[in-house]
Amino acid sequence: MIRECGCPSESPEWHNQDIDLAGQCIHTMPTSCFLHMPIAYELYAKRQQTEIENLELEEKWPGLSLTRSGMFRGQRIRLLTHNRSASRRISFLPGPFNVRVQIHKGNMSTVQIPVREMSIGLIESGKRPKELYISHLNCPNCMRTEGNDRIMLLRHWVDAPGLKRK
After folding, report:
1. CB-count exposure of residue 14 (10 Å: 0-12, 13-18, 19+)
2. Which of 16, 46, 48, 117 is the most buried (most CB within 10 A)?
3. Residue 42, SS3 per DSSP
């Protein structure tokens, strides 16, 4: 269930774990970015929610969205239960699609240290870090009532045999 403000009411308990999301059904929404900063973030969030409701799709964790930003284009991903839909925005994650997850208690200005530590930990274990996905688990209104800002960081990684030798 999604809260009135749009935040997910529940989220997966994946803190400090490596998760394989291979074959996971997803709904993707391309977004606009400028220098890795999403433009009109709430507009895309509402548009994606409306499309999911119109297609009558079921989500594993309603309201949970993974955001990947780029220089000029980004992407919002919502995890769905397995669905058959003719929508062009419904697809499946490729296999293997391993992610390391960490929950950061703080805002975006303090996120660089946990991201760096996560990347170093992946390299030391012989895995090459790839894309970073960010999921805000609460909005500014919920942050005031619950007391802290929580951000789920998901770093996609692949095995790197060259790093294991070192």
Report:
1. middle
2. 48
3. helix
Kindly calculate the radius of gyration of the chain based on its CA atoms and give it in whole angstroms: 16
135 touches 150 (CB < 8 A): no
How many angstroms separate the CA atoms of 17 and 99, rounded?
8
Tokens 């697809």 -> residue: 91
> 149 forms bridges with which residues in the sheet?
none
Numbers of helices and strands, H then E, in the chain: 4, 9
Contact assessment for residue 118 and residue 132, using Cβ atoms and an 8 Å cutoff: no
Residue 75 near residue 29 (C-beta atoms within 8 A): yes
- Residues 6, 1: Cα–Cα separation, whole Å: 10
pTM, to two decimals: 0.88
Amino acid letter, 24: Q
Which 8-state DSSP code applies to residue 80?
B
Q: What is the pLDDT of residues 108-141, one digit of tens each?
A: 889 999 999 999 999 999 999 999 999 988 876 7
